[in-house]
Amino acid sequence: MIHSVRFKALLDTNVIYPVIIRDLMFWLAHYDLYTPKWSKHIFDEWESVMERNGVDKSRIAAQLQRASNAFPDALVCNYEGLISSLELPDQKDCHVLAAAIKANANVIVTFNLKDFPEEYLNTFGLSVKSPDDFLTDIIDLDPEKAIEAFKEMVLYKRNPPLDEYQVLAQLRKNLLKDTADYLHSML
């Protein structure tokens, strides 16, 4: 059960990169519905994905800096020593688990659920959730605050400007159907 900002979620790169998912994740964290965590490895992957998608270097730097400034306590440090002792189906994901362990996170939020076996994560007191499941849980924690965060997020959508229903459509396109449906039901 999610209780408060003491609830820490390690956000994998595939949750941070899609702009619409990142925006909603960050706005809900800004409204103190949970505490986001990430690592240098995750930011390096995020930077690499943006480069591959043709994002300008100055824009990349600005996005990374904005995230760091918005959540100065989100960066997990000194987790690297744990990486080699961990075993996951994809060894390249061990840095995510190591950062989650070091952060004393409650959950890893990722689209790659199969790469984080629940039984193995349980041995570290961790669980794994898809962004859609995680976000519906967070919204359920405090629906009024969540809808307030969503509406403020929409107000900041300027490039291009979007209304609430256009943002919901983008969430659905990015595999957040349950989240979009839940938010839509409260509008």
TrEMBL record:
Pfam families: PIN_3 (PF13470), VapC50_C (PF26343)
InterPro entries linked to this entry: PIN-like_dom_sf, PIN_dom, VapC50_C
SUPFAM superfamilies: PIN domain-like
VapC50 C-terminal domain residues: 131-184
Domain PIN as annotated: residue spans: 8-113
Name used for this protein in its record: Uncharacterized protein
Lineage start: Bacteria, Pseudomonadati, Bacteroidota, Cytophagia, Cytophagales
